[in-house]
Amino acid sequence: MTPTAVDVLVVGGGATGAAAAYDLARRGVRVLLVEQSDLSTGTSGRYHGLLHSGGRYAVGDPGTAAECITENRILRHIAPFAIEDTGGLFVATPDDPADHPARWVDACRAAGIDIDALTPAQARAQEPALTPHITAAYRVPDAACDSFDLVHGFVEAMRALCAHSTLCGDLLAYHRVIRLVTNDNSVVGAEVENVRTGDRQVIHAACVLNAAGPWAGMVAGLSGITVKVKLDRGTMVAMNTRWVNTIINRLRPADDGDIIVPVGTVAVLGTTSVTTNRPGDHHVENWEVSKILGEADAVIPGIRQGRALRAWAGVRPLYEPPDIDHGDTSGHGVQRRFAVIDHRVRDQLGGLVTVVGGKLTTCRLMAEEAVNVVCDQLGVDTPCTTAAEPLPLPAFRQQYHRLDHRLRKLEHGQLPGQLICECELVTRPQIEAAIAGYGDHPVALDDLRRDLRLGMGPCQSGFCSVRAAGILHEVKEHSNLKVTRALKDFVDERFRGVKPLLWGHQLRQLYLDELIYRRTLGLDRLIAPTPEERLDS
Length: 537
Fold this sequence. Notes:
35% of the residues lie in helices and 21% in strands. The chain has helices at residues 15-26, 62-78, 100-111, 120-126, 147-163, 216-221, 286-299, 343-346, 363-378, 403-411, 428-436, 445-452, 464-476, 480-498, 504-520, 523-526, 531-536, and strands at residues 5-11, 31-34, 50-51, 83-84, 88-92, 116-118, 136-140, 143-145, 169-172, 175-182, 187-194, 200-210, 230-239, 247-250, 259-263, 266-270, 274-275, 308-318, 338-342, 352-357, 419-421, 426-427.
C-alpha cells in the first residue's frame, strides 16, 4: 500500500528524481518517488542516448564539461549495465571554423577531458563511413547510455534497500501532484491524483524535493513561488541501422544537427534547439528533420538517403539565475549547469527544495547536491555514498542491451517461447514476465516498450502491437474495450514519431500498417477519438 507519510516526497521519475530517491534511501531516509506517467517518460526518455565526455561543452560551458567527465567515469563504475562504451570522435570539416579545434583542445585539457589526436586517415579507418574531407579529428571518452535501464536501476536499488529494513522507499507512478500542502510557511506534503482513475490522496512529508524537469516551475508554482525555467525543445531522428559504431560530434560551436549516436540497433541524429512554453511539447517540425539530415550528411555522406525510422522531441529544462536574461537566445547558447534552490533560504518557505537544469550525465551529482540540501533541512548528517557503491545488477538487465545478445540466445534455444516482436526479438515469456512485474498496477503497451524495446524496430510496432495487446488482454484480463484503447494509444504514439518521415521505405511501411490497423482491424472506428486526439490530428 502507498504510504501516506514519509520523510521526503520526490516529485519526478526521471534520472535526477530516481537518483535522488536512491540517494535518500541509502542515507536512511523514508522516501516516496511520485511520477505523473511512467519512469523516464519526460526529458530523460527523450534524449539522444549520449553519456557525455564533456567535450561538447568544453569551450562554451567549461563548468558543465568538468562535471560531465567526472560523472561519466562514476556512471561507468556504478551502472555498467546501462552503458555501451562506444567511444567518441570530434571531427571538423572544411565548413567548420578553422580556429575552433585549437580552442577546443585547450578547453578540454583545462576541464580534465582525455583526448587523443587522430589523423583524418586514422579516423576514417575507425569509421569508414566518415567523409574523406575531414580536417581534424580527436578521440574522447563518450559512450551510449540507456536512460530507461539507468533509471530503473536506481529505483530497483532503492526498493532493494528498503525491502531489507524498516525504511520506506517506493514509486508511485501515474500520479500527478496537483497541490502542495503548506502550514506555517512550510510545505508539509502534496495532494496527488491518479491520472488513470482520478482518485486523490494526500502524502504528508517533512520535505518535498521538486525534480520535475520541465515541469519544475509548475510544481514550485503550486506553493505560490516562482522558478523560471527556460524550456528548449530538441528534435532527434533515428536511422534504422548503425551507420557508425562510434559517437560522432561536429568539432564546431554548438549548433543544430551536430551529433550522431549509435544506440542499440540504430543511429540517433540530433539535435535542434527551439524555445517553447510547454513542458510536454513533443511535436516535430519538417524543417528540423531536414536540417538534421543535411548536417549529418556533411559528416556521413549518403546518410540522408538512408531510411529514417522515427523522429521525436524532448524538452530541456534550462535554468539561469534571475539576474541573467538571454531573452530569446537559442538554447544552444545557454549553459547546462544545474541549480539546487533551497526555498527555505530564497523564499522563506521551508520543506521545499527544487533541482533543475543539468544533463542526464550529471543526474547522480544533481541528486547528491539536492539531497544534501534536503538532509540539511531534515537534520540528517549521513554523507552521500552513491559515487562509490555500484548499483546492484538489476533483475531485468545483467548487461547493456544489444540485439545480437538476444539473437545468439534465440539461435541456441535460450530464448524460448513464441516470438512476438521480430525486430527486437521479444518473446511471449518476456512480455508475460514484464507484465507480472507490475503486480496489480495498470500496464500500458508503452510501458512494455520501455522495458523490452517492444515496437521500437523498423516496423515501429506494425506487427507486434496487436499480438502484445492480446497477451495483455489474457494476462491482465482486461475488457475488450480497455485493451482496444491500450492498442490504439500505442499505435497512435508510434505513428506520431513516423509522421514527419513519410517517404521511401517508411511510407511503404505506413501503408502496410494502415492496412493492418485501420482497414483490417478498423481500430480507428472501434474507439471514438478523444478531444486531444482530434486536436492533434
